[in-house]
UniProtKB/TrEMBL annotation:
Extent of Low complexity compositional bias: 182-191
PANTHER family listed in its UniProt record: HTH-TYPE TRANSCRIPTIONAL REGULATOR BETI (PTHR30055:SF234), HTH-TYPE TRANSCRIPTIONAL REGULATOR RUTR (PTHR30055)
InterPro entries: Homeodomain-like_sf, HTH-type_TetR-like_transc_reg, HTH_TetR, Tet_transcr_reg_TetR-rel_C_sf, TetR_CgmR_C
Keywords in alphabetical order: DNA-binding, Transcription, Transcription regulation
Region (Disordered): 177-200
Protein biosynthesis listed as a keyword: no
Record-given protein name: TetR/AcrR family transcriptional regulator
Amino acid sequence: MPRPPLARTKILLAARQIVERSGAGALTYDELATVSGLTRGGITYHFPTKDDLLRSLLDDDIKQWRASEQASRPSNVDPALAELIGFIRSHTSEDESKRRFVAGMLSAAVHQPELLDSCRSEIARQRGDQRWDEAGLKCYLLRLAAAGLFWEELFQLHPLPTKVRKQLIALMERKAEQWSSTEPTAETATTDAEEQHKNR
């Protein structure tokens, strides 16, 4: 696979820097030319419109999230559990650059929801083999908890003490290990029996 042109990479790095610092609204071709050191014509050659640039930024960000999740996976466990733990760790990592970028992109995404199409596709890809039995729902609950913590911290809604935050993440990982098992647990069997009894 050929490497992307150096100028294109330079433009995306500069654009991300602007978004992290001042938000997507500040991402103009003039500002991008100043930060990247490239000409406006050189920028529009790779990104004819601002929407093209924003979509490419989001695509690039998705690749970074994937890499973060992959790097966070433990190597000595079942692949499905490793993927879940990688998701939890990636979403709860204290990566200020990632948070600033997401915050900077929010207004653009709210005003142009179609910009998030690549994010929707990525989530659909991740959920392609999602099971909706009790074990699958429990794993999905942990994904929601990790994503919820990310968004709560992004908006600084209710900062957790450092010790409590670590305990919460450790609890998520322990539950991931307990709940990702394909074998029915006593708790699952009890719940299933109760559900069957109610449906009679």
